[in-house]
Amino acid sequence: MAKRKITLFLYTLILSLSVVSLAVAVRLTPVLQTQEKLSIKRPTFNQIFDTSKYGILQLNNGLAQTPQMGWNSWNFFACNIDETVIKETADALISTGLADLGYVYVNIDDCWCPTRNFEGQLVPDPIAFPSGIKALADYIHGKGLKLGIYSDAGAFTCQVRPGSLYHESDDAKLFASWGVDYLKYDNCYNLGIPPKERYPPMREALNVSGRTIFYSICEWGVDDPALWAGKLGNSWRTTDDINDSWASMTAIADLNDKWAAYAGPGGWNDPDMLEVGNGGMTYQEYRSHFSIWALMKAPLLIGCDVRNMTAETFEIVSNEEVIAVNQDPLGVQGRKVNVSGPDGCYQVWAGPLSGDRWAVVLWNRCSKANTITATWEALGLKSGVSVSVRDLWQHKEVAVDAVSSFGAQVDAHDCRMYMFTPHTTSLRNIA
Ligand SMILES: *[C@@H]1O[C@H](CO)[C@@H](O)[C@H](O)[C@H]1NC(C)=O
Ligand SMILES: *[C@@H]1O[C@H](CO)[C@@H](O)[C@H](O)[C@H]1NC(C)=O
Ligand SMILES: *[C@@H]1O[C@H](CO)[C@@H](O)[C@H](O)[C@H]1NC(C)=O
Ligand SMILES: *[C@@H]1O[C@H](CO)[C@@H](O)[C@H](O)[C@H]1NC(C)=O
């Protein structure tokens, strides 16, 4: 029995791998102006913002042209979910205006499904989800939002509910029949089978289901998914789970930074969901969390109770100028470009945007306020270039003609985030 399953599995794998190579051959061209495409290929630019892998790893399902935005139940609710919470969250995304800002995925995480029935079909918890997932999807769709669900590339989910390993085709068909728009696919109880073998069958099954479903690979960065998952998924986790602490958030930002060259329209590095609003960090720390996630082109999946946000939480997650950096069509992941000070805690993070603009974050990871300076050298700008500087948290122009460097005082664990707009051609060493 087990042997037959494995043979079948290998056969499916070979089949799906050949489909994958086909998919790569006909991949989408990233939505870019020709000129921008050229400029990100210039060698001097690539010394700082390596984009050599940009756009080469794309799942051709038309999704994720910009990082996904929405909400996920796990960080705040864990297993305490039911259809009322999900519906009220959808209502709150609409009434707060967050949906209009782009937060459209309403994603149910683990614990929605305790069992399979005699036919082997997943059955939603009859107490928590008495109306079923199809009815919930209809409700969410009725609001113009999208529904996400969760399963696992293993025998069980992390909370020991049924996993989808060897049930990929049936489960994908069921999700599609319910109108599911997004699948987060976790990595627990994986029987020691390598991720590169467990994640392709679900990619194939979702594709064959005929419904366009966002495939969010949650492999925790174990097998360096940036190197291969772009052919399979629309995003791939690069790290272990985040928790609601400064230590976790900063460590994860650094780990995710390593894979910046691999992100691009169609597939994104995923440093995990937002903790903004859950209480474990200060306002300044949450503002840094949100700014860096936006700059890194991370998925912006709110992880708090959006039915009950403080004004500060709302201010952070609703910052349109910061969201615009995340959703910029150029889709190049911003990264750490300079560190100085004790333990390298004065940091400059930056990334190019469409329209020859730059997003720049001055991030103070020390415990005392300090001035942090971004040099044009570190950003890859020609030294004589003059830029106007807009502060994306103060929502105002703070300099009209900065030349060669720009610095500001930054509070402990806080950041400042700017948009730089050069007045002339900005790239270095171009005659
Ligand atoms: C399935 O994959 C093919 C080839 O990559 C793609 O063109 C098509 O849009 C995909 N269909 C779905 C439903 O994802
Ligand atoms: C949160 O993550 C940090 C950094 O990885 C770790 O040191 C800490 O133990 C974690 N806290 C909890 C409660 O898991
Ligand atoms: C709303 O959040 C506050 C903390 O910000 C908490 O004290 C309160 O219990 C929450 N209310 C509900 C109804 O969850
Ligand atoms: C990095 O920042 C430090 C401190 O501001 C500065 O001395 C150094 O020149 C910067 N490096 C580059 C390459 O700009």
Automatic annotation (TrEMBL):
Residues 1-25 form the signal peptide. It holds the Pfam family Melibiase_2. It is an enzyme of class 3 (hydrolase). The lineage of its organism: Eukaryota, Viridiplantae, Streptophyta, Embryophyta, Tracheophyta. Its EC number is 3.2.1.22. GO terms for molecular function: alpha-galactosidase activity. Gene3D superfamilies: Aldolase class I (3.20.20.70), Golgi alpha-mannosidase II (2.60.40.1180). Belongs to the glycosyl hydrolase 27 family. The keyword Glycosyltransferase does not apply. This is Alpha-galactosidase. InterPro entries: Aldolase_TIM (IPR013785), GH (IPR017853), Glyco_hydro_27 (IPR002241), Glyco_hydro_27/36_CS (IPR000111), Glyco_hydro_b (IPR013780), Melibiase_C (IPR041233). It catalyses: Hydrolysis of terminal, non-reducing alpha-D-galactose residues in alpha-D-galactosides, including galactose oligosaccharides, galactomannans and galactolipids. Residues 343-419 form the Alpha galactosidase C-terminal domain. GO terms for biological process: carbohydrate metabolic process. Keywords: Disulfide bond, Glycosidase, Hydrolase, Signal.
